[in-house]
Amino acid sequence: MTKDSKSNLSEKQGVSQPETTSKSAAQKIKLNRRKQVSTDTFIEKILEGDITFLSKAITLIESTNSKHQEKANTILNACMPHADKSIRIGITGVPGVGKSTFIEAFGKYLTSLGKKVAVLAVDPSSSINKGSILGDKTRMEQLVTDKNAFIRPSPSGTSLGGVAQKTKESILLCEAAGFDTIIVETVGVGQSETAVHAMVDFFLLLKLSGAGDELQGIKRGIIEMADAIVINKADGDNVKNAKIAKVEFNRALHLYPPKENGWQPKVMIASALNNSGIEDIYTMISEYISTTKKSGAFENRRNDQNKHWLYTTINDQLKKRFYENPKINELLQKEIINLEKGKTTPFNAANNLLNNTD
Amino acid sequence: MTKDSKSNLSEKQGVSQPETTSKSAAQKIKLNRRKQVSTDTFIEKILEGDITFLSKAITLIESTNSKHQEKANTILNACMPHADKSIRIGITGVPGVGKSTFIEAFGKYLTSLGKKVAVLAVDPSSSINKGSILGDKTRMEQLVTDKNAFIRPSPSGTSLGGVAQKTKESILLCEAAGFDTIIVETVGVGQSETAVHAMVDFFLLLKLSGAGDELQGIKRGIIEMADAIVINKADGDNVKNAKIAKVEFNRALHLYPPKENGWQPKVMIASALNNSGIEDIYTMISEYISTTKKSGAFENRRNDQNKHWLYTTINDQLKKRFYENPKINELLQKEIINLEKGKTTPFNAANNLLNNTD
């Protein structure tokens, strides 16, 4: 078409004989078919244990694009019947405790037994500095080249809830891909241990031995969550201190009421450097799994965790909807000022706010 | 009118000359005026420190009748500017620890100093057996006859939130009535300590000395909340054990990170029977109050508590509205079954439920 043809007054050119099918319609069908095939391929490949497709599917889970999410959900739903068959182990510990080295040694031991190991992470802080735990794969250079290991950094996200949800869904995909041991690492920012604790079968706290007073500075609630405490870097001059720390932790654990499933949390010593203690730790975890599977506690814990995530997701969303309402937010600021001035009670203020959404 | 007049066919009697104002209208005005006067009287009497009216107003707070609640709110709002000036002390301990005897001894000591003491309670279990802590006033027979003391049993209710709200509002009325020390007792059912902790300036845990292993069996989180632990019944043969327990609790308290306000929780020994230790406990609480008032921590805590109650009330109500929706409830049961069968993820199930309220 020439420039002139833009005028409505200009004579229109005759159209040539149309093609039997319109180009755009053909393209749509083609795209659609490609998408269809693609999702099916994803599912097929994941169930075959193809790590490249597993990795791509997790990228879809982590995407904020709604089409990607839709696709991820289709894949996830198809994979669901093949998931849920692994052992999920959570590992936490402050930076410097030797998590990477420990996970590498532990993971290598597991693959040497013929197991397939996936290592995931929950680190809500990773969105801030764009770095993330496990992001630097060179930290586990032996495990990363192991064909029976799959290592995936923490998803980024603004809220722990979002990050945790993505990791939880990734666990299911890894399981569908045949990984029988899932390790979820967390650095323990905010409530991230609680989130990881709520998605694993066994929760392990890594500690260093210090100069006594081992319990000082441990975050509240962590001891209660731990199924085992492993004193890491028990090598060289540290061995003696590690043994002292073991006694102290054992005493501390006895101060807590026993776990509902009857398990008495264990304290163990390990050196990822010397590869010592790793086998014992795996034996202990295996014992825990077989005991709880026999008693039904294993399945109960998974059911409880699913319900926990169901209610947590709903409750978070209810609050989000309420507090992200601009009208509510404005009124809330006013009511908080009234509260501080003693002009209202918390209950009157709450009712005022709630009546604005009726 | 006769029985016959019931028939529509019967001739109607002529009406007599109407009165200048209708009887029902006059009655309405009269009732309304009585109500107006009554609320004003309530406020006036409460501010004068009249215990009978204070007691009646608390009954209105506790009522489930919406007219009573409206009236209670009017009274509460008028009393608000006169509230907030007392010291609020929470006291918890398992049954048998001697709470009543301790509160009586402590309360008598306070009134001997010229203080006015109100004793309230939070016991969510009281609705079940219709009994309630403090219900049996004879347990504090000296304090109950003290004109500077006011003792009120726990309100009954089906939820801790409801019971706690009523007690929190009663605190404000007691303060407006001139009570300068409010003691809130709880027996520690469910989360009731957390609720009481969130409405007091100082939280005191009563304990007995035993045969060692003092920390066994203490509910999770209680130690972290306590601003002081008082080992009660330290008399006769118990004195030695109490001293041992004191050492053990002191050691245990050092395992916890220091409080945000810098306060190091204290362990003390008391015998309500011998009236020993009571004065020291009051001195300690006074020190706490003056230190935190100077640093601003006192006001911060109250502000934080008010915000806590604001958010708690809103969040509870949001959940209540959602889960009490019969449609949601039905769908929830289905989704939980799907979850247990591994047919859905917690996140898919949650979204399904949430989309039903859009």
From TrEMBL, chains A, B:
Pfam families: MeaB
Family annotation (Gene3D superfamilies): 1.10.287.130, 1.20.5.170, P-loop containing nucleotide triphosphate hydrolases
A GO cellular-component term linked to this record: cytoplasm
Biased composition (Polar residues): 7-25
Stretches for region Disordered: 1-27
MF term (GO), any: GTP binding
Family named by the database record: Belongs to the SIMIBI class G3E GTPase family. ArgK/MeaB subfamily.
Descriptive protein name: Methylmalonyl-CoA mutase metallochaperone MeaB
Lineage: Bacteria, Pseudomonadati, Bacteroidota, Flavobacteriia, Flavobacteriales
